[in-house]
Design goal:
binds zinc ion, 371 residues, 6-stranded mixed beta sheet, binds guanosine-5'-diphosphate, alpha/beta, 5-stranded mixed beta barrel
Length: 371
């Protein structure tokens, strides 16, 4: 087995322990580089392999967050029927079946649309998450604080990246000071994706086999940073590479890509969707004192704004709840509602539709290879 190849994909020697019982059953380790409708592209010691989850894994894992997601390490069984020589132009002729998901070092989840409680794994085993903000009019330490909360729940190491230093002028030092107040232990880097200034300070997070992802509002420069780090237009390149033979392309499904320095970048539609959406989910956790008062409100779905019999407003009036906390809560609640209204259903439907089309294409290839 080619250990180097696995290490380049992020494999750590400590994981051998978790994998041992699977190895004893003749399974191989692999990392999920792309997932579409339960079809997976795996990075293995032998190259790329297309795989499906076994029915048993699907059955057992459903609802327990244990279905494989991008970034996951899995145990798969190579399919002996597919041992024919690879077809020209495809990376590998092999395929396999995923039997287990290895324990995760970090995980990003999101609420499934239309369900209060169902969670979906968006990405796993991310070492470092760059929380990107821009040093322009949108600069907002409170938002950074909320992204920190989100990252904190994931288990990934948060690193704050302030982009667009080239247009920030003298405000950079000031901005860093403001961020330092909310940053806790997270390192802060000021960079410009446009001029490449400060980009090299991100190198410590981008070594071989290190997995990174970017989080931040739309427009802060995430795509620009990715392109600057890749030293080429990865996003565009990927869409060309994933073109089918008729020249159509499906640019939204680059998922895990290798940067020139050896780091692995996870950039899934799901990670992009996280944005403020799931930051909104943390509303109740951020304002736990308000959450604690809510059961005393007259209405169960009280928004603590103008409803009669609101215990939260009463607490503000009585001076037992700080007015500025209450104001921040109202602001964040409004922001979340606006974001969800814009985003929710339509975005989810669109992503579902695209996944279906791509999944179908992959499934066809999987079948062709099986012959
Ligand atoms: P994303 O939505 O977070 O992926 O943001 P984009 O990468 O698409 O960038 C949004 C806009 O900001 C684009 O017009 C970029 O050209 C611009 N931009 C990105 N990085 C920088 C930067 O470092 N400096 C300046 N001045 N503009 C930038
Ligand atoms: Zn209330």
């Amino acid at each position: 087995m080619n250990r180097d190849f696995l290490e380049e994909a992020g494999w750590r020697p400590v994981m051998a322990e978790a994998f041992a019982r699977h190895a004893a059953e003749g399974l191989q380790p692999a990392r999920v580089a792309l997932e579409l409708n339960h079809i997976y592209r795996l990075w293995t010691a032998e190259g790329e392999v297309l795989a499906e989850a076994t029915g048993r894994l699907r059955h057992e894992a459903a609802g327990r967050h244990e279905l494989p997601a991008v970034g996951d390490w899995v145990a798969y069984r190579p399919d002996p029927q597919a041992a024919s020589p690879p077809a020209t132009g495809t990376p590998s002729g092999s395929r396999g079946r995923i039997e287990a998901v290895l324990p995760r070092t970090s995980v990003f989840t999101r609420k499934v649309a239309g369900s209060e409680t169902k969670q979906q794994v968006v990405a796993a085993n991310i070492d470092t998450v760059f929380l990107v903000s821009s040093l322009d009019r949108d600069f907002n330490p409170r938002r950074v604080e909320r992204y920190l909360l989100l990252a904190g729940q994931s288990g990934a190491q948060p690193v704050i990246v302030l982009n667009k230093t080239d247009i920030a002028g003298a405000h950079v030092a000031e901005a860093i000071d403001a961020i330092r107040e909310v940053a806790r232990a997270a390192p802060i880097h000021a960079i410009s994706a446009k001029t490449a200034q400060g980009l090299d300070t991100l190198a410590p997070y981008l070594g071989t086999g290190q997995t990174v992802a970017l989080l931040g509002s739309s427009g802060v420069g995430k795509s620009s940073i990715i392109n600057a780090l890749a030293g080429e237009d990865v996003l565009r390149t990927r869409s060309v590479r994933e073109s089918d033979s008729r020249g159509r392309h499906t640019s939204t499904h680059r998922q895990m890509v290798r940067l020139p320095g050896g780091a692995l970048l996870i950039d899934t539609p799901g990670m992009r969707e996280l944005q403020l959406w799931d930051v909104g989910e943390t509303l109740n956790q951020t304002f736990d004192e308000i959450d604690a008062l809510a059961p005393a409100c007259r209405f169960r779905d009280c928004r603590h704004k103008s409803e009669p019999g609101c215990a939260v407003k009463a607490a503000v009036a009585a001076g037992t709840l700080a007015a500025d906390r209450y104001d921040s809560f109202l602001k964040l609640q409004a922001e979340r509602d606006a974001f969800e209204a814009r985003h929710d259903e339509r975005a989810m439907q669109e992503e579902k539709r695209r996944s279906k089309i791509m999944g179908k294409a992959l499934r066809t290839r999987l079948k062709e290879k099986g012959r």
